[in-house]
Amino acid sequence: MPSPHAATGRSRHSIDADLGEGHHEQMMLAPGLQLLHSHFRLHAPTHEVHEIHHPAPALMMAWTLQGHARTRDVDGERFEFLPGHGTVASFTRAQGEREVPGGQWVRQLRLVVSEPVVIAYGLQSLLPVQGVHARPRTLYRGRNAEGVQQQACRVAQLQAQQADPLDLHVAALQLLGLQLRQLDVRAVPSVSPLDESLAWRAQELLCAHLDRAVELPWLASTLGATPASVQRALRAVHGCSAHQFLQRLRMEQALALLQEGVPVSLVGYRVGYAHVSSFSAAFSRFHGRPPTAYGGRRALP
Fold first, then answer.
1. 101, 153, 212, 241: least CB-packed within 10 angstroms?
2. Domain of residue 53, CATH code
3. Cα separation of 229 and 227, whole Å?
């Protein structure tokens, strides 16, 4: 159900309990600058048709902080939303199909930039001429620069904490500036559709086997690819090896389980660790704090 906060232009919509858990939140920071933050987990994979209309051409900036999802527009173009990646598109109207996997936490941040912010910051050249481009025009898609990713995480944290609207507004403008500079520099290499697809399938397979020992040859064979192809795809999309990516997925899932109050011993087992001590050491190295600092109870006797 929506939970409006009229004083700040903030609204929050909880996920139906039959479908999953989490929420979608949006906030109008200023005329022409809207912030949207989603953090949810669905019980089962979901396909849904979505359609967005905007009264005037606008910019949509999206950053994936956790989990993954994908959309396919009416022309068949596919957009992958992967952790550490961002997408910038100009649009007036967008429609297509969205696919979200089940059983995984997804966290995504978006900014919708329209008049008068577009005019104030001289961004008109990035927008389509109204009435000419009905479908979105992709301006950037790829791995985020480090500064962009850090600032996106900071904005999401401020939003989750319901920080002062002015602080959130300033942080969102800083994120907008960093992303626009990345558009100009294009320092992040593009990823081929084949690597994008292979990385997506590898992530789905790994997420389904976080509690097991996974070796690269088995992963590649199951995906119908060579080990070298899998490594190349994961390095191109996620910037790390298959082993490092599996570790990242395990630690992200472990954090989500701990925050739900699942005991440390059970969390370790669910992400592939037979011994609590080994899991605690790995978790501390990855997150910088022990599992018990994030809400997980101590090991079961």
1. 212
2. 2.60.120.10
3. 5
Helix or strand or coil: residue 4? coil
Residue 103 is classified by DSSP as S
**What stretches of the chain adopt beta strand conformation (E)?**
10-14, 20-30, 33-42, 46-66, 69-73, 78-81, 85-100, 105-113, 137-143
Q: Which domain holds residue 165?
A: 10-185
**One domain, residues 134 and 259:** no
Strands 78-81, 85-100: pairing is unpaired
pTM of the model: 0.63
Mind listing the pLDDT tens digit for each residue in 229-244? 999 998 887 778 999 8
Q: What is the rounded distance in angstroms from the CA atom of residue 44 to the CA atom of residue 27? A: 28
With a cut of 70, list the residues of the chain below it in pLDDT: 1-8, 50-55, 72-80, 93-96, 128-136, 184-191, 295-301
Let me know whether 129 and 250 are in one domain. no
Please write the tens of the pLDDT for every residue from 68-125: 777 766 555 566 677 888 888 887 766 667 788 788 888 899 999 988 788 888 888 7
Residue 301 lies in a domain: no
- The torsion angles phi and psi of 240, rounded to 5 degrees, stand at -155, 170
The rounded distance, in Å, linking the Cα atoms of 162 and 52 is 26
- For residue 189, give the amino acid letter: P
Q: 105-113 and 85-100: which strand pairing?
A: unpaired
Residues 87, 29 contacting (CB under 8 angstroms) = no
Q: Do 197 and 171 belong together in one domain?
A: no
Residue 265 φ then ψ, to 5°: -65, -40
Domains contained in the chain, number: 2
Same domain, 147 and 267: no
**Residue 10: per-residue pLDDT:** 79
